[in-house]
Write a structure and sequence with these properties.
Layout: E1 2-5, E2 17-21, E3 24-28, E4 34-35, E5 37-43, E6 50-56, E7 72-81, E8 84-92, E9 101-107, E10 118-119, E11 125-131, E12 137-144, E13 154-162, E14 167-176, E15 187-194, E16 197-204, E17 212-218, E18 226-227, E19 234-235, E20 245-255, E21 261-269, E22 281-290, E23 293-296, E24 306-309, E25 329-330, E26 340-341, H1 345-348, E27 350-352, E28 355-359, E29 372-377, E30 382-390, E31 399-405, E32 411-419, E33 422-431, E34 434-439, E35 448-456, E36 459-464, E37 467-473, H2 474-477, H3 479-482, E38 489-495, E39 504-514
Length: 522
């Protein structure tokens, strides 16, 4: 037996979905406007995770251009059935409801390649999939209720899917409208066939402080469903703002080879009970069955700080996805943590040995397009990042630098620009679309420029050659302050500010590491 710290996937890994096939567990999570999309991770013990591929990993699979921050890929579900791996997901444009929709992809190997998306004639978000004992396939999801009794009431629908026709067929059944009167956003619905009954697990309350898990069961997949009298069966909202973990919900269940059960779900670490710069993370929750119903965190009723896992033969080694023991240091171009905005990293940059060549683009971070940006999730509350940029290739009017990003409207940059007089070092803090820019003179080195970022809880400092030049407050950049769904990303960016791009920057070194106690710079 080993003990594992929660969260098991630190940093922005929201809406987790998991399935087990043989000795392997497979997990996917939402990635919104970041690509490659929907990482597929595998583990033998729910502790040591490795990224083996991504579902959306080639150009043209879906159209992301113009989709603003916290839009994009929402709430995937992964399952195995009929000899295939299946992922269903929603592509969402928060500003244009006519774009995107629910889609389905399949693969014979969860590492990929995944099929081209099959768009589903079903509205709403958070689709899921279940397989009946007779081989029938059922799609389900959530949407705003057609005839709501209260604002933001949602309903869960289920309908048969024909793999041969690649389409939904037959009658649609609305099976759930919420466990509690007034409850909003019954999201992340999952159906399970367990001991001859169908169980519906759904999140309610919205994916924020009031998030909760509810459960219902039925004899047939199409219902009628009867809710558990204990609903909501799991939440952290009753713990109040003194709880350092808030917003628990969006659960998915999985059974281990020894017959025991676990749930993965999202929650947020918020030191002040409100703000969570790392975003919604993936937590592990033990599960038991009593009187025919699932009981989350039995005897405790909250996400445990540590979870005992009985089946692994050895402790989690350094390099697992534990919050404090990930491999730290230089992130090479081949590392699966790299992401880009609305494009694949290979579409905006070129890997050359241990460096990235980043051609300048006209697009800026303020636009809902594909800028010259490469970044990684912040996965530690206390973190040190250092990058070295070769800026000899920048043309006049072009800039490149280090970015702490939440959205188009909310980000902080420390950068150099090439002017007629030479390089100029500047910083910009953008909050709710308003920008405060400051110039800092010429950088210390005209060829290679070093930037660093230190994060300590909510306090961020961006430096050049060890000198602090710009600060940021994570409580102003997190999703609860900005109205989004993402954690913070740290990366590099190059732009010509709308002019025809001519130059490039080279990312010769990018280091990410948990902060050592007492160390505030590198």
């Amino acid at each position: 037996m080993i003990e594992v710290d929660n969260p098991i996937l630190p940093g922005c890994h929201p809406d987790p979905s998991v399935c087990r096939v043989g000795e392997w567990y497979y997990l996917v999570s939402s990635t919104f406007e970041y690509l490659p999309g929907l990482p597929v991770l595998r583990s033998r013990d729910l502790v040591r995770w490795e990224t083996i591929g991504h579902v959306v990993d080639r150009p043209g699979m879906l159209e992301f251009d113009g989709i603003g921050s916290s839009g994009g890929l929402y709430a995937p579900t992964i399952r195995h059935g009929l000899g295939l791996y299946w992922v269903v997901c929603a592509l969402v444009d928060r500003d244009d409801a006519s774009r995107g929709g629910n889609f389905l992809v399949t693969a014979t190997d969860p590492a990929g390649p995944w099929s081209d998306p099959v768009m589903l004639d079903a509205g709403g978000i958070d689709p899921s999939i279940a397989f009946d004992d007779d081989g029938r396939v059922w799609l389900h999801g959530t949407r705003l209720a057609a005839e709501p009794e209260w604002p933001d009431q949602t309903e869960v629908w289920v309908r048969e899917y024909s793999p041969a026709r690649q389409a939904l067929v037959g009658e649609e059944h609305v099976i759930w409208r919420g466990a509690v009167r007034g409850a909003v956003w019954a999201e992340g619905p999952h159906l399970y066939r367990i001991d001859g009954r169908w169980f519906l697990i759904a999140a309610e309350g919205g994916t924020e402080f009031h998030h909760a898990v509810s459960v219902a069961r039925a004899d047939r997949i199409t219902g009628p469903y009867v809710g558990n009298r204990a609903n909501p069966v799991f939440t952290h909202r009753h713990l109040g703002r003194t709880s350092e973990v808030i917003g628990a919900g969006h659960a998915d269940l999985v059974q281990a080879p020894d017959g025991s059960w676990q749930a993965v779900m999202l929650a947020m670490r918020a030191a002040d009970g409100r703000h969570y710069p790392l975003g919604r993370e993936t937590f592990l929750c033990p599960l038991s069955w009593e009187d025919g119903w699932p009981v989350f965190a039995p005897g405790e009723g909250r996400l445990p700080r540590t979870v005992r896992i009985p089946w692994p033969a050895s402790a989690a080694p350094p390099g697992s996805w534990q919050p404090d023991d990930r491999v730290a240091g230089v992130i090479a171009p081949a590392d699966p943590r790299w992401t880009a905005l609305r494009a694949l990293p290979a579409e905006v940059a070129v890997a050359e040995g241990g460096a990235w060549r980043l051609p300048v683009r006209a697009t800026s971070l303020r636009e809902a397009s594909a800028p010259a940006f490469l970044g990684v999730r912040q996965q530690h509350q206390d973190v040190e990042v250092r990058c070295v940029l070769d800026v000899r290739g920048l043309a006049e009017g072009e800039s490149a630098g280090l970015v702490l990003r939440q959205s188009e409207r909310d980000h902080v940059t420390l950068f150099v620009s090439r002017t007629a007089e030479g390089l100029l070092l500047s910083s910009e803090r953008r909050r709710a679309g308003d920008a405060l820019r400051q110039d800092h003179g010429a950088p210390a080195d005209a060829d290679e420029v070093e930037f660093a970022l230190s994060g300590r809880g909510y306090d961020y400092v961006l430096r050049h050659e060890g000198v602090a030049l710009v600060t940021a407050d994570g409580r102003e950049l997190d999703a609860s302050a900005t109205g989004g769904f993402l954690g913070l990303w740290i990366g590099v960016h190059a732009t010509s500010g709308g002019a025809d791009p001519r130059g490039e920057a080279r990312v010769t070194r990018f280091e990410y590491a948990p902060a050592r106690p007492g160390r505030r710079d590198r």
